[in-house]
Amino acid sequence: MIETERLLLRRWHDDDLPALTAMHADPEVMRYVGGGLPLTPEESAAALARYERDWEARGFGLFALELRTPDPGPVGTVVGWAGLAVPEFLPEILPAVEIGWRLARPYWGHGIATEAAVEVLRFAFEYARVPRLVSVCHVDNAASANVMTKLGMTEERRTVVPGRGNPVLVTELSRGRYLRGRA
What tens digit of pLDDT does each residue of 32-88 get? Predict the structure, then answer.
């Protein structure tokens, strides 16, 4: 569990499923993800189960993002996720650990993704001791690319996701560069 000024980054609970399902059902949220289509409630339930399996198998995963303050929404609201995953959808960059985030649309533009991602980055390099992080976003997803820049990540390559044809930007940051920047 990690606390920021406005957020609690924590493991998932079964009662988080309605918030996750609502987020995944929004076409704008899912616009740049996978096939660009909303997920069904069943797909969201499977995703939630996968998030927890990843924590158990790898010792890291996606944190649920819960509001600790009433701005920009009610305290206790799950507004999305941020965390670490293995980007199996892009074999050419493996082995790798990816930092990522996804927020429900009402919480876009409030700095929440950056606030959460800064703590996930710290968790990855200082606690999980990951040697290098990547982040992947659709080339048209300027908001995610902006978060990557704020984290100090630099472009590694542009490529296409096999089987989907999505053009993506891959950025990276090494643990060594991160630690030098903190000194």
Answer: 998 889 999 999 999 999 999 999 999 999 999 999 999 899 999 999 999 999 999
- Determine the Cα angle at 62 with ends 59 and 66, to 5°: 125
Interior angle at CA 4, CA 38 and CA 138, nearest 5: 35
Phi, psi of 75 (to 5 degrees): -55, 140
Q: Which residues of 51-60 are buried (b: 16+ CB within 10 A; e: fewer)?
A: beebbeeeeb
Written as one letter, the residue type at 16 is D
For residues 85 and 97, the answer to whether their CB atoms sit within 8 Å is: yes
Predicted confidence at residue 183, as pLDDT, reads 67
d(CA 183, CA 177): 10
Residue type at 147 in one-letter notation: V
151-160: pLDDT as tens digits = 999 999 999 9
Q: Quote the pLDDT of residue 112.
A: 97
Q: Are 30 and 38 in contact (CB under 8 A)?
A: yes
